[in-house]
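Appendix B: complex inputs.
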Amino acid sequence: MAKLTIRNVIKRYGALEVLHGVSVAAQDGEFVVLVGPSGCGKSTLLRMIAGLESISDGEIEIGDRVVNDLEPNERDIAMVFQTYALYPHMTVRDNMAFSLKLARRSRQEIEQKVDDAAGILDLTALLDRYPRQLSGGQRQRVAMGRAIVRNPAVFLFDEPLSNLDAKLRVQMRTEIKTLHQRLGTTMVYVTHDQMEAMTMADRIVVMHGGGIEQVGPPLQIYDEPANSFVAGFIGSPSMNFIDGLVVERGGTAELQTEEGVHWPLPESARAYLGQSVRLGIRPEHIAVGPDGVQARVNIVEPTGSDTHLQLQVGSQSIIAAVRDRPSVSVGQPVPLRIDANKVHLFDLASGKRLH
Amino acid sequence: MLDKHRSAITQSKTRPRRWFRAGEGRTAFFFLLPGLIGILLFLVLPIFASIALSFTDWQLLGTPHFVGFANYTRLFTADPQFWTVLRNTVFFTVEYLILNIVVSLGLATWISSLKFGQRWFRGIFFLPTFTPLIAVAIVWMLIFTSGGLFDSLMERLSLPFSGVLNSQTLAMQAVILTSIWAGVGYNTVLFNAALDMVPASYLEAARIDGATAWDRFWKIRLPLISPTLFFGTVMTAITSLQVFDQIFVMTKGGPGSATATLGYAIYQRGFQNFQMGYASAIAWVMFALIMALTALQFWFQRKWVHYDN
Amino acid sequence: MTTKSKAKARRRLVLDVINHAALAIVAVAFLFPFFWMVSNAVRSNAEVMAIPVRILPKVFEWGNFVAAWTRLPFGRFFLNSAIIAVCVTAITVVVSCLSGYAFARLKFKGRETLLLGYIGTLMVPPLMLIIPLFLIINRLGMVNTFPGVILPISFGTFGAFLMRQFFLSIPMELEEAARIDGASRLRILIGIIVPLSMPAIGLLSLFTFMGQWNNFLWPLIVMTGADNATLPVGLTMFQTQQGTQWNYLMAGATLSMLPGIFLAIILQKLIYNSIALNAGMGGR
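Resulting structure:
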């Protein structure tokens, strides 16, 4: 078990810089999720921690050792790949034992460790099978078993669930989380799925364009996004954004759009009177009210538990997620209420959250 | 702006981390070494040696003398046999190549039309490919020998072809027939595999569009396998220009020089007369011929080979 | 089914049967030389040349196979051919895997250039190198020795290229997982890559082996001693100044063909798949 520290890490391919000086640390035993859209550099960063990519500049420290110049196997890490990367010509047992055999551990020790790991992951009955004889979820577990037997200081996961179907993904999410609680090892987990990040992480690192946008616990990221990118990326359906001018009308602060629509703002938004801002409001904070902003229903999407309404306000498209099952139909005009206290305001130019 | 500034700073303090590459480079060197030694000694060195030799009069014993282009001028102006050899080689290659491609494509198409036993038929036509060409040539020599099976068949049919191996005109045809039997199997399997790989949906779409079986073959399947057809043609041409084994067994280049080819001439000059320099010059003429024919085929492929991308 | 469509189906069936039967006749005709070879191997030499020609021998002389085997040191020829073919194949496979791996997975300066050079050498016709190769072997004092016949033909570049192409199709993650597990490059190659490349290695081995088993000119030139001759070279020894012993020659030819025919039959699927691989890559 160990702390992982990343200091000003830069990755360049020739003249192209894909990571611009990233610094982040994972505490001992922490579950850190790197999340971001594809091409944001999250996988590259993970592969640099693993030693599969060279580090152009900066330092990576595992425990108290700088590992920049160490081979992957010397870094005391284990990695679970997106495609699992199970050796197709070896049985489950041999797959799990491979690293121990290479390290010339004793037969007894190898057997012991493989059996232990298999027990933890419920793989005991499958030890003599080949990867091709396993289901997707079982392969996933073997990949984790291969990581566990090494008893590494840090576990690395590279989008390990993206090849599974939706139901299995939810199940494996829980299994990985349980495993983390049981082993208490530092884990770094890469995903593009914000839902995975929210549900699994102790701390989320949101990455974008080769840099870090925000680091924090899931709910903090959700409730207090540092900027409009994070606000839009985390949460599903995505946050609604409405640009406009902060004005005062009838004694309260309001956002006035170019089309003349007025949206309520919290009292504290008075500080930005006269400024152009971007208002952000999550779909679940919009309700069909008895009165409010006039909108028209475009699409009704019942998900069972919630109902997603795609609404049109002027030329602006708005999504609302409502808990009950509103009796609205397509084309019908409805009044919208938004919870002024749940509104975020972002600076139009920099995207930084003002409020 | 900020990024630029930051990377400028870090660039200046970049430490050398070439170990990452150097380690791989060293591994690569050791992995490549056995092959490289072999290739330098047995491929690169001989190529240069061959060029050098072709400008000498070396006879294996004694010391070689530099003779400039004498070997080449002798080939093209003084050697009475050489033009015959060149003509024989081109004649063999052209006839063999056309027959091989036509027959193998025909067999491949025929086989692919079958519902049962495709692999058995493929296997039968492939068999000679895995047998020693020398043995094949010996069997066909027995068939063609005077008073042999072929002659008695011709007699039965009252056809005026007998003693073909002793005939100035027919000996080459016998060699070509033997070569076809021996060599048609590989291309048959190659083309058959290519035909198998044409997605059924194309043919189904063509049927719906109203294409007849004839159209489907000429307008859909043939264009789609044309890259493979081209590949097979080029490879077959290169090997047929080097024909040797059949001729060594069946005719020894005879009667007269009726079946002497470049390959046989290299052997004769080099290893029977030990004219190493002269034989090397012939080898380079053969190489030039191979390059010319290959270039010609690549030139023509633009007219008939269809690539997806 | 209507009567009309029934009639149509029957007509199609008849056409199908005719199609199969016609190709079967062609195939049998194609196999005739094999039959003729065996048929002449088991008759007396006088009967081989007798007129009129008989399709089957009057008396089956199966002893001819034994006679052919003992008349010349045929067992020795077999062994010589086997030694050469096996050694060339083994060296080719090992060298090709090593170089192929370097080209597929290791970064080094000038990799693309070197690979292009390797591909370029494929254009050089083997017949062209015969003379300088013989002179090199002669200079090294290796004429009429096994190393002399084996080494010069064991370093073709085709194998390296073939293995590279195949290695590239193996997922990179497997290799990265092995690196994290602590495997060295050599260990990765032997323990992970090679076991997964058996189709390609099988194809390379098979075609190298058969190519050398059937090779004639190079062993003819290098193996000057009668005892060192390979099978194809040995066969030509039945043609002597006194005339040709056709029956023994046919018996010898039959024996020489057996391994290839055997392999072609049992490895039918591998052969088809490997040639199909060629068809897929052909010209692309």
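Chain A touches chain B through twelve residues (CB under 8 Å).
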